[in-house]
Amino acid sequence: MVRRERKRTGRPRGVVAATAFFCALFLVPHLLDDAWVAVLTLVLFFAFVGQAWNLMMGHVGLLSLGHALFLGIGGYTTAVLLQDYGMTPWIGIPAGALVAAMVGAGIAWLGFRFSVRGVYFALLTIAFAEFFRILFSNWPLIGGTGGYFLRVVPEDNVPLLSLRGGADHFYYLFFVLFLVGLIVSARLVRGRIGMFWSAIREDEDAARALGVRSFRLKVLVVAVSAAMTACGGGAFALMNGSLFPNTLMGMQMSIQIILAPIIGGLGTLFGPFVGAVFVVLVLEFSRDLGQTAGVYGLSTLIYGLTVLGVILYMPEGIWPRLVRLAQPLRRDR
Amino acid sequence: MSRPALQVSALDGHYGDAQALAGVSLTIEAGSFVSVIGANGAGKTTLIRTIAGMLKPTRGEILYRGRRIDGLDPADICELGILQVPEGRLIFPSLTVAENLDIGGSLRRTRARRRQNMADVFEMFPRLAERRRQKAGTLSGGEQQMLAIGRCLMGEPDLVMLDEPSLGLAPNLADEMFEIVGWLHREGRTILLVEQNVEECLARSDRAYVMENGRIVLEGRGAELMADDRLRAAYLGL
Amino acid sequence: MVELYLKVAAGGLLIGTVYALIAIGLTIIFGVMRVVNFAHGEMVVMGMYLGYALWTLFAIPAIPAALIAAVVLFGLGVFLQVTVVSRFVGRPQHSQFILFIAFALVITGLHLMLMGPDARSVMAPISFQTYSVGGLRLDAARVQAAATALVMILALVAFLRFTFIGRAIRAAADNPLGAEVVGIRSGRVYAVTAGIGLACAGAAGALVSPLFDAQPFLAPEFTLLAFIIVIIGGLGSLTGALIGGLLIGVAEGFAALLINPAMKSMFSYGLLIAVLLLRPAGLFGGREAR
């Protein structure tokens, strides 16, 4: 489903649009109130993490249904290093990314070594995620199901140093992560490695026959995806101040992670963002509706029906559909 | 001239964007033996699958006894009396021989006569009768081929389409296979045979078509084609 | 001591039979349609709620309730298959996954709206009765649930062996292309299969309603449990699902006894990982792991 958006003729237009978009995002905290900032922070979080997941799925075709595992690894590593060892998140987050990369590489290595494919691979990711979630839930060191709590920031907190601050601060933290994530993804996907990944996705056997080292490249994409996700997890932990294994590492979270890129548009660069906007907005909207109507469960129902609608009528995703609508005069599909 | 049993006109077929059939036209007279030959990938199996309704043509039409059948469900086409002995046999490995045959005979028009038909098939293929309770997956290649033909017969076909029935069989079994196909023809059925084994085909065919890259490139009476130089060069290595 | 182990083993076998019924529903759907029903647990919970409602409103005990639940969920399965799932048969796996997640959300939403988030217990006399078998005391509800589940499984096996559509289902599972060749109408076969799959889940749910409290959030646990059994037994294999169900029932019982009960699922997941790596076709899955 990858469409290399070779906007030859539209390039100046594309660049202008993208710059305008990022400027708009940058200015949000100055233009909108705290409630909106909080919502958009969440959007950027899911967009960033969704983009990380998208690397594995959209570009190499590996379905991970247990991605929340890496969120948890990143979150707990960052939090524990900060709280129990006094290490700044500037070290903690990369550390979390490293651990996640190793765990991800390990799982990938096992999976590929034993030729676990298709739906079995997806189930393998679920199994590992659940296994570790239960492990973390029963690990006294990190508080188990009771949760792990970060101490409140001291009076003389310097947000840039401690990476903890107010709503605006976290907005920019996730904005930077999202931007960096996009740039890194774009570089990888449009470079040589991305080309090999596409080849593997299209026909792994043919690629290997041509000398592409598919095993290594597949382990690589999982490691990169895991590391990115873990960074998101670390930032998420700092923002929330508390971690619970069942929410942070559970199936629900894994599902939420993948909803955004699938609904937004797999394999595209902007799909995860559009999907994240959709997912977060629908969630907020349905929650509000449920609360005003006073009916428990209405929000879940509406959420489910909306997702159902999108997946039925916009199978490639919202972003590709929008692109097509906006450019009816384009020659190719 | 009697109305042709099957008439294919200007058929185009696509797999996604790739064109598999281009402007294919052929005519099969009722009761005749028609062969389609060509190399791998020429489109022979695609043609059979399109006639059988498993693939929808992107252009053209298929008439059976004057009625349009392109676009019909495969199950409906089976009910009309057009049945396949498909490439690779496609029998059901975990079902027994008897069950495989039973399913073949479960079409609406043949359901009532299942028992009798199965007895006939067993008489014709004693080896299958011996193995009636065996799982079809345990049969040898030749036996599976017999099962595939038997299963087809259970459906009381008027038009039988066979896709490479001799593929993968030892020479003596392949010969047996052609004998059976000949017998099917003599019993009054219309035969469409797709093969790579050119000599056997042409020797028995009333009419033959040669396909290449999804097109018909040569057609004529079986005997004529046997003598055709181009054909001999391309397919018989002479 | 031995008596305790026997009790745990017996209890495990009993609940395992019901687990097997759930797993059979999942495996038949996958075996025939190559579609993974990630909302299977939600269907089980629906059965539980049906069991609860039928008891509370009409004093219908678990066994007839299970039959009613089977019929209702059969209808639901046919409906969903014909209207929605049939459009997804060729689509990529992630699309199918999201479809079933959407189903799960919608069903959970409806459960919450109709029944609220609190657990619903069936307080039937049977919940407190026990049978004495060879010196062991066994929960009557468990024994009845297991017996009914077993009968249903045998009925299903007979259906698949002796009826035309049952054979058609087996044929389609064996060789979908071959089924098309012989004129089997896949639409009908898939609809019946979906119906059967969901009926198994619903019936199992109704059977356990006297044993566990009905709650929407049990659903993911049931889904994952069904997966573990189906993978271990072999995707598409009924025998595998049966044996797998019994195995998991007993294994979980012992794991809860010998290891920390909260960690008994960890054992199941560890087992799942091992099977996925070492023998993905499972115990009885003959087909090559896709």
From TrEMBL, chain A:
Superkingdom, natural source: Bacteria
CDD domains reported for this sequence: TM_PBP1_LivM_like (cd06581)
Transmembrane segments: 12-29, 35-53, 60-79, 91-112, 119-136, 170-189, 217-238, 258-283, 295-314
Cell compartments where the protein resides: Cell membrane
Pfam families: BPD_transp_2
GO cellular component terms given for this protein: plasma membrane
Bilayer topology term: Multi-pass membrane protein
InterPro entries, alphabetized: ABC_transp_permease (IPR001851), LivM-like (IPR043428)
Record-level Gene Ontology MF annotations: branched-chain amino acid transmembrane transporter activity
Keyword vocabulary terms for this entry: Cell membrane, Membrane, Transmembrane, Transmembrane helix
Name by which UniProt lists this protein: Branched-chain amino acid ABC transporter permease
Species annotation: Rhodobium orientis
Organismal lineage: Bacteria, Pseudomonadati, Pseudomonadota, Alphaproteobacteria, Hyphomicrobiales
From TrEMBL, chain B:
One of the GO biological process terms: L-amino acid transport
Signal peptide segment: none
Domain ABC transporter positions: 6-238
Gene3D superfamilies found in the cross-reference section: P-loop containing nucleotide triphosphate hydrolases (3.40.50.300)
Highest taxon listed in the record's lineage: Bacteria
Pfam families noted in UniProt: ABC_tran
GO molecular function: ATP binding; ATP hydrolysis activity; branched-chain amino acid transmembrane transporter activity
Coiled coil (residue ranges): none
Keywords assigned by UniProt, alphabetized: Amino-acid transport, ATP-binding, Nucleotide-binding, Transport
InterPro entries registered for this protein in UniProt: AAA+_ATPase, ABC_transporter-like_ATP-bd, ABC_transporter-like_CS, BCAA_Transport_ATP-bd_LivF, P-loop_NTPase
Membership in a protein family: Belongs to the ABC transporter superfamily.
Matching PANTHER family: HIGH-AFFINITY BRANCHED-CHAIN AMINO ACID TRANSPORT ATP-BINDING PROTEIN LIVF
Protein name, per record: Branched-chain amino acid ABC transporter ATP-binding protein
Organism lineage: Bacteria, Pseudomonadati, Pseudomonadota, Alphaproteobacteria, Hyphomicrobiales
UniProtKB/TrEMBL annotation, chain C:
CDD domains with a match to the protein in the record: TM_PBP1_LivH_like
Topological category with respect to the lipid bilayer: Multi-pass membrane protein
Key words of the record: Amino-acid transport, Cell membrane, Membrane, Transmembrane, Transmembrane helix, Transport
Domain of life, source organism: Bacteria
Compartments, as annotated in UniProt: Cell membrane
Keyword Transmembrane: yes
GO cellular component terms, A-Z: plasma membrane
An MF annotation (GO) of this entry: transmembrane transporter activity
Transmembrane segments: 12-32, 52-85, 97-115, 145-169, 189-212, 224-254, 266-285
Biological-process GO terms, alphabetical: amino acid transport
Name assigned to this protein: Branched-chain amino acid ABC transporter permease
